[in-house]
Predict the structure.
Amino acid sequence: MDDTLTLDEALADLTSAEDFLDYFGVPYDPKIVQVNRLHILQRFHDYLAKEPDGNATGDDVARAQAYRRLLRQAYEDFVQSDAITEKVFAVFHHAPLPEGGQSTFVPLDKVFK
């Protein structure tokens, strides 16, 4: 962690799942991240949205500790499971195919909520 920047400044410079994991010191297997990077980041975002300490302002140390814990949890979700099972994105929540095998249309605004 770079102590010369505020947490918000440091976060603004992070662009990949690997950047986040490295910044917060979460050990990871590159093979797992390569396959699940977007899912891990989305799950991390979802956890932050539910966590009172995750969106707090002020104490960067407390926020960084909460972020580290939530990012580790998001990563571990995909170590123990997979993207299809975890159903992070809305596209995985569609109903099973009907008898005729026709797929369900999911508009883009439902995927990127």
Q: What stands out?
A: Residues 17 and 37 are 6 Å apart (CA to CA). DSSP finds six helices and no strands in the chain.
